[in-house]
Amino acid sequence: MHGALQLIRVGRTLWHCRRATAGLEFALVLPVMLAVYAGAIELNNFMNVYLRVNQTAFEIEDLVGRQTALSNTGTSGTTSMATLCSFAAPIFRSGSSSNLTNLSIKIFGATVPSSGTTTVQWEATATTTSTTVTCAKKTSGLDALTLPAAMTDPTQTPGTTSVGHIAVIVSYPYATILPVTLLNSLKVGNSGTSISGALAALNGVSISTTVYGVPRYIVGSIPYS
Amino acid sequence: MRSLRRLFGKSGCRSGAVSIETAIVIVPFLFLTLMTLEVILIEFYQAIFAKCVQDTARQIRTGQSTSLSTTTLELNQLVTSICNDTGNYSSLPLPSCSGRTAVIVNVISSGIPAYSSGISGGALVASSLQANGTVTNVASAYPGACNLIVFQAFYRWPILVPGNQIFLNSGFTSPSYLFASASAFQDEPPQSGGQCTGLYN
């Protein structure tokens, strides 16, 4: 009983004490400032990766679209898909922090027959290491491709049945620097869901860009031998 | 002795205590504020740099660049082009831009070139950007029509705030944050024929 009274007395003294207020205020503000700092770095990294995923998709589509014949390694008058794909490495590199291991690239050559259903003629996918990217034609189990409606609409695309299409899908799982496990332990909203649900973007979200195009110099899908 | 006791003694002087507290606290406060500001500044200029590299890559691609008027590619002119361009997007150009920018133009005619993801891991990048911050522009042949070209540009942002010098240094002896940007494209200067066919086997 005596101890409790003493504690209360000490607490009351501290409550009314006006010394070291600047230090106390700073201690309150410090976590916020650190969060803003970490957030600024996180945003910087995220924007960097986001822009590079976009640029990689656009530039590979542009390179593929200007070819008239493709093959894995560029034999007999064709362009090497492996070479075109390898350019993703310098484009995607972001300072010293990039790692290409998880970069995914899918390149499609497709046609739209009169039935209006997209037919994938070929698909090339990337194999990556931490520093290199190379692509090869997929021999089986081609992924499905859905072209935007306007690209398969005969009224909007003259000669739809003979027009070839290109689609390039680039995706990358962005890893955060902020402590996601800490964020996960917090609960947000009245439903009490984990913050990772609300901030899924922070937990290794897959940044993905799809770019569509048509072969610039030939009619139909670009032949891939 | 008496004056010391007056300052530090139990019932000593208490005036100016708030000022002293503030003086102690303001140092880390300002550091954190400046660190955050520099990160934001880096973000801003990195985006500008990437855009300017794209602009210059397009000049090579279309034959617009004056550095293509001769038989050899004038790499220093490409650096000047990037640096002048940054002035178009921001009233403050990049600090010491021309001295801290390096470019590499690779003209690919066959084979798969090797690239590194770091600043010291691969021959291409290492030959251009040394750990001590020395910048050497890698020479290249005139990129003829229809060649595949990889244009890479680097800028070393001088990190000023001490805290950031630890967290953001890209591995340089003089603390710097590396901006790295690249563009890959097929060259298209005016030519007869108008299209490129299977040149890269």
Topology summary:
The complex is a heterodimer of chains A (225) and B (201).
Chain A: H1 2-16, H2 21-65, E1 70-71, E2 79-80, H3 81-86, H4 88-92, E3 104-111, E4 119-128, E5 133-137, H5 149-152, E6 164-173, H6 180-185, E7 187-188, E8 193-194, H7 195-198, E9 206-213
Parallel strand pairs in A: 1-2
Antiparallel strand pairs in A: 3-4, 3-6, 4-5, 6-9, 7-8
Chain B: H1 2-8, H2 17-62, H3 75-89, H4 97-100, E1 101-108, H5 123-126, E2 148-158, H6 162-167, E3 176-186
Antiparallel strand pairs in B: 1-2, 2-3
Helix pairs in contact in B: 2-3
The low-confidence parts of chain A are: 182-198
Give me the strand/helix succession of chain B: HHHHEHEHE
Distance between the termini of chain A: 90 Å
Shape of chain B: rod-shaped
Order of SSEs of chain A: HHEEHHEEEHEHEEHE
Order of strands across the widest beta sheet of chain A?
A: 5-4-3-6-9
Query: In total, how many beta strands of chain A?
Result: 9
Overall form of chain A: elongated
- Identify the most extensive interface between protein chains: A-B, 57 and 56 residues
Q: What is the count of helical runs of chain B?
A: 6
The major beta sheet of chain B can be summarized as: 3 strands, antiparallel
Low-confidence runs of at least 5 consecutive residues of chain B: 110-135
What is the first-to-last residue Cα distance of chain B?
90 Å
Indicate the proportion of strand residues of chain B: 5-15%
Tally of strands of chain B: 3
Radius of gyration of chain B: 25 Å
Give me the side-by-side strand order of the main sheet of chain B.
1-2-3
Query: Can you tell me the number of structural domains of chain A?
Result: 1
